[in-house]
Amino acid sequence: MLVGIFKHGLSRLLKCVLADYCGDIVSRRLYWLAGGVAVVVAAVVLWWGLSSAETVETARVQQREVVELYVATGRIEARRTSEVGVRIGGTVERVLVDEGDEVERGDPLVEIRPRDAELAVDQMKARVETLRNELQEIKRGPTQAEIDAARAEVDQFEARRAQTDRDLKRTKALHDQQVMTAQRLEEARTAAAQAEAQLAQAKARLQRLRERPLPEQVGAARYRLKQAEVDLEKARDDVAETTVRAPFAGLVLSVSADDGEQLSPNQAVARLADMSSAEIYAEVDEDYFGRIQKGQPATLIFPSMPAETYEATVRQVGPEISTDRGVVGIHLDPSSLPDNAFPGLTVDVNIEVERFDKALAVPADAVVRDPSGTFVLIIEEGRATRKPVDIRARGEVWMAVDGVDEGRRIVRNAARVEAGDAVAPKEGEASGGAP
Fold first, then answer.
1. Around Cβ 318, how many Cβ atoms within 10 Å?
2. 271: three-class secondary structure by DSSP
3. What are the boundaries of each domain within the chain?
4. For residue 54, with 0-12 CB atoms within 10 Å meaning exposed, 13-18 middle and 19 or more buried, which class applies?
5. How far, in Å, CA of 60 to CA of 360, rounded?
6. pTM, two decimal places
7. Residue 324 burial (CB count, 10 A)
8. How far apart are CA 352 and CA 396, in angstroms?
9. Per residue in 70-81, is it b (16+ CB within 10 Å) or e — as a string?
10. In contact, 180 and 128? CB cutoff 8 Å
């Protein structure tokens, strides 16, 4: 490169020497004298450029530990969240938690005024007691007094039927003599039919009292009692439901109820996150899709706590994908998190995609990539010579490579040097070796 500059300058100088218009500036004799001196100086400079070598920093290919990391930005997410609601409606008595509170399973969140629920319990208790007495009466059977009363009722309706029969015969006779109207005859017939029906019902009731209780009667009474007892337990549960409790231990993300607010059944009052199920969600470039795998270790660093690190493991790759941005979602399980961590918090994720405890390695600044491939510059006979290499892992400072021998001296900051340039290691590197 330096030699080319000298050649270009010398060419311009010679052209100037041979040009006729230069004589307009100085006398032709002085001009040729100055030109001769310039040619001598240019020749000296050209010789120096051709014979000198550029001093470069070098290093030797050596065995080292190389760890390649993929750095991404992620956020905390809780895999288990819950909208906690009321099962029964009512008026909010007290809200017992605030956003950001940590709660244990069963801790109270919201209390609803229990007056209506307690009244329903009292009503169901009374119904259960009534039905329990009814069942006992059915199982015990009728008393003698009840049988006597039923028999007296039968006698009463028999007497009434006999009277209506006599009235019907007399009315019919008078009607036949055209003394009684047809309407009065129809009324007599109706009264006789009613008396007959009432007598039949009284006889049936007496018959039932004389018999033992039927199994279906006892069964029906037991069913009514059992259903009432179920309703009583539900009413008691409703009283318990007037205190809304946390279904699991977690973090209160939001509270959506206020003191005195009227709530409808199943209305949400709070949102909880189970932080024991917390994960890290991040996105990686599609080019790394094949290199990010389940089980790979990672290190988490929170921007607000750069001195603290937390370990994590890749649990799942995908299935989230953004085709327009060319990224794939990944999920990581953290071994621990800060005590004050919460969903949505941003975290830097360093995923270990490749690790070599011992590999042939070169400094990262010694590797150059151009359209023809990846290479390093080795020093052969005082010149930088291109040497193709394959990269196995890209560490932050060192890269694991194939294609170059251990101990070989290579040029650092290689992007600043052209292949074929004359180069020489910095003083102290030629014999002692570089790191």
1. 11
2. strand
3. 2-51, 54-80+274-435, 81-113+242-273
4. middle
5. 10
6. 0.57
7. 5
8. 12
9. bebebebbbeee
10. no
CA atoms within 13 Å, Cβ hemisphere of 295? 0
Reading the chain (435 residues) residue by residue, the pLDDT tens digits are 444 444 444 444 444 444 443 444 444 444 444 445 444 444 444 444 444 678 888 999 999 999 999 999 999 999 999 999 888 777 888 899 999 899 999 999 988 876 666 666 677 788 878 888 877 777 776 777 878 888 899 999 999 999 999 988 998 888 888 888 888 888 888 999 999 999 999 888 888 777 766 677 778 888 888 887 887 777 676 666 778 889 999 999 999 988 888 888 888 989 999 998 899 999 999 888 888 999 999 999 999 888 899 999 999 998 999 989 999 999 999 999 998 889 999 999 999 999 999 999 999 999 999 988 999 999 888 899 999 999 999 998 999 999 999 999 999 998 888 988 898 888 666 544 445
Pick the CATH number of 81-113+242-273 from 2.40.50.100, 1.10.10.10, 3.90.1640.10, 3.40.50.2000: 2.40.50.100
Yes or no: say if 332 and 315 are a contact pair by the CB < 8 Å rule.
Answer: yes
The answer as to CATH 2.40.30.170 being correct for domain 54-80+274-435 is yes
Q: Say which residues have a Cβ less than 8 Å from residue 355's Cβ, sequence separation at least 6.
A: 65, 66, 67, 68, 393
Residues across the chain: 435
Residue 199, phi-psi category: left (phi > 0), alpha (psi -120 to 50), beta (remainder): alpha
Please state, in angstroms and rounded to a whole number, the distance separating the CA atoms of residues 199 and 309. Answer: 96
- The four Cα atoms 67, 72, 73, 78 give a dihedral, to 10 degrees, of -80
Q: How do 423-425 and 90-95 pair as beta strands?
A: unpaired
State which amino acid sits at residue 414.
Answer: A
